[in-house]
Amino acid sequence: MAATNxxxxxxxxxxxxxxxxxxxxxxQLAANEARMGHEAAAREIQQLIEKxxxxxxDSQLAPSSVNPGxxxxxxxxxxxxxxxxxxxxQMVLSSDMRAxxxxxxxxxxxxxxxxxxxxxxxxxxxxLGPPGCGKTMTAHALAHELGLPLYIVRLxxxxxxxxxxxxxxxxxxxxxxxxxxxxxxxxxxxxxxLARGSQHxxxxxxxxxxxxLVFIDNMRGTSLVIAASNHPDALDPALFRRFDDIxxxxxxxxxxxxxxxxxxxxxxxxxxxxxxxxxxxxxxMSYAExxxxxDEAVKERIIENLPKITTALILKMAGxxxxxxxxxx
Length: 329
Description:
Blueprint: H1 2-15, H2 19-35, H3 39-60, H4 72-75, E1 79-82, H5 95-109, H6 111-116, E2 124-128, H7 135-146, E3 150-153, H8 155-158, H9 165-179, E4 183-186, H10 203-217, E5 224-229, H11 237-240, E6 245-248, H12 254-264, H13 275-281, H14 287-303, H15 311-322
Parallel strand pairs: 2-5, 2-6, 3-4, 4-5
Antiparallel strand pairs: 1-3
């Protein structure tokens, strides 16, 4: 019955020329298909919606005398298009973290229903935590779950030597956020939201920061904006209340670390692996480091034509990772 209701709603939205409602309902249908185990069908629906939205965005960027908006040339270098290839199910998350991210997805899937009650889903997320603990991966997963394009804001392209130009470029980005429903990621956000009064505080940065506060406060449209920072202590306190939700990431627990290794190697031929030794070897490492260890073990098996991945091979890759410069443990 749920699928029938969604098909009826899709037809209504089509004849009402409400493309966004059509897409939202189609994503709900994809979610139902996924719950029934029809992963291929769900993935195809998501990919079609993402492709259609990206095509619409490209056409909106074409010159127009009615509503020109930011042109493709103006946005060149400011936004990097990334293909989100995995969802939340591919992430190793605590039950609390998974529940919070699932809530974001549910609210966006019911965007139009919430709007009928004059409510908005969480549209501005601030992700905090050490490097390699899943902040960027979360942006990929949310974009995948919602069937939305993912754009990474190139902060290095925002800053120029000309006074005032950075704020102008920032306005172009927020114009794009308003015009296109997508997930926009501001990575290393502390370079924009640096606390006022810090040793790196200069007049131009203060002007950019003040512009940023205005743009966030006045953000319109249906996009999901994610800001990620490895240095929450460096952020200005005025930023925190501008976000709908603040999610803090931490290093994986011993059980989460082991679960990640097993998941990463689940399709590989394994010898009698001593998982206790593996768990001890990857303790205190970030999610990103653990993924690299597992991937390096797979590459070594392929290149050396080894029949199976062994405990010794995994421990070897973990040892090499620990010896890398810049690690504290």
